[in-house]
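Incident log, structure service

09:12 report received: a user says their structure output differs between two submissions of the same chain.
09:20 pulled the input from the user's history:
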Amino acid sequence: MASSGAQPRPAHVKQQKDTLVNYHYLCAALQQKYEIRHCAPCQCEFEGCNKNMLDFSSYTAYKLRPVELRTLPNENGTIDTEDLKKLHEALKNRPFHAGSEGLLSYVQDRDGILFSVIMAYNGPGGTCGDKKWDRVFDRMKAKGYKQRAVPCMYFATKQGCVVDKCPYSHKNKASLRLRAEVLLARRQILFEPTPKQYLADFKKRMKNEGWDAKALQQFMREMAMKELNPDHETLPNDVSAPRAHGYCARLACVKPYLFAMEKAPLQQCSRCKWTYYCSEACQRKDWSRHKGECAPEEEVITNNKLWSYFGLRLGTNIQNLKV
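09:34 re-ran on a clean worker, output below:
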């Protein structure tokens, strides 16, 4: 039966497309291949509000749509220092910004803030208000706007870059520091119970404790919050609060290593050393599932294709799972 909805693009395809479009916007802006067009007053609640659009028709390397520009330079082409500071603050404080997407991600800002910043760089002042970005822009110009001069948009994100032979730089110092933090977080996640293990354990507790469907709904909401935000805190008396160091990896069993236990009832897989079982019998029964993921710790941690956009190991989340 055909699917009724559009299938999401594979991660590598999405990353390639988004990065390429943003790269060309950046090139067009730095090469000053744009024209400011003043549009008719818009129909918003602010009287006399006019839209200013940045038209990139003169850039021929890639077809780019016009973008709205909220902040214009002064008549002499400069932007006041205080205004530049506010623009950078607005970029860094935008919703959902994790601080690791790299320079290219700022192109997507709906108010065209990055373009105002670049126009300041193109102006008499010769600076965008951020010395690090100035160096990137200078390097791009010096190297003929080659992609390798631009920091990769996804290298330091929770998922990481999943594009084979990525043409963008993976050597930016700030990105390397953030990448190290991502790998550290992955290492911790690898040795923690997975959302699927939590769910399997919770269902057993539901049956034993006689909890109703509302408890399951609450559990699923809390787990969804944790998947979106690992720092989300659960109240100690919440039914979804963690109660174990780990579980038997066979979901039909999920024997827990409870916090109250002095001795662990689990043994690690001798091959990968990050998966645990309560018995050899459970390990044998789970091998058909586990063999596809059984690999050394470092191999799993550094392989971006095994991790999701939100930084979870693929195949372990419970979102969109029928319960």
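09:41 both user submissions now match this output. Likely a transient worker issue. Closing.
09:42 reviewer note: The longest strand covers residues 35-41. The chain is about 35% helix and 10% strand.
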